[in-house]
Design a protein that fits this description.
Layout lengths: L22 H33 L8 E7 L8 E7 L3 E8 L5 E6 L2 H13 L8 E2 L9 E7 L2 E7 L8 H10 L7 E2 L3
Parallel strand pairs: 5-7
Antiparallel strand pairs: 1-2, 1-6, 2-3, 3-4, 4-8, 6-7
Length: 187
């Protein structure tokens, strides 16, 4: 049971304080609660230029490239090859059942290249099986060939992309096969 103290009695060492909040005070308090996330985002953006340079340190066209090749099936499976080099250049070769057939070229930004290099670093490539081929005759075989800092790894599968490789394959597909900004070679 709770006791109720008399209204006129309060400890002598405390004095009553009344807070009046005007709409302006509330607005300032609300804005200050949004200020911290905005400052954090600005700090990330401000440091991103140097972090891209740090990310790409040691990455060259000679020691880094990623290639995705898709194979034939009995139906209309798209057959193509897409490569992103360590300098950000892209080469795409649409062979069959693709929206664009022929060789196309282009490039990605340094920030996008850093995104790819980060994916390569985050994926533990050494521990992955190099082949995941199931006994399904019509399933097209896909191959991912990664050269990262001079180390070469190749992965093949036919039914399901191995889970750890999915982000890399998605990145490659978006920036080669689905990239509408690429131009036909020689044009």
């Amino acid at each position: 049971m709770r006791r109720k103290s008399p209204d006129d009695v309060s400890p002598k060492r405390y004095r009553q304080v009344t807070f009046l909040l005007t709409p302006i005070h509330v607005l300032v308090m609300h804005a200050s609660s949004l200020l911290l996330p905005v400052l954090v985002a600005l700090a990330i953006v401000a440091t991103s230029c140097s972090s891209v340079d740090d990310c790409l340190k040691g990455i060259t066209v000679q020691n880094t490239s990623v290639t995705l090749e898709t194979g034939l099936c009995f139906g209309n499976c798209p057959v193509y090859s897409g490569t992103i080099l360590g300098d950000g250049n892209i080469m795409y070769d649409g062979r069959r059942f693709t929206e664009r057939e022929g060789v196309y070229v282009g490039s990605i930004s340094r920030a996008k290249l850093c995104e790819l290099v980060t994916l390569l670093r985050q994926t533990n490539l050494e521990d992955l099986r190099s082949e995941t081929i199931e006994n399904v005759p019509d399933a097209p075989i896909s191959e991912l060939r990664i050269v990262h800092l001079g180390k070469v790894r190749s992965f093949k599968w036919n039914m399901r992309t191995p889970e750890p490789l999915k982000p890399i394959v998605r990145f490659l597909t978006q920036n080669t096969h689905e990239n509408q900004d690429l131009r036909a070679m020689g044009k």
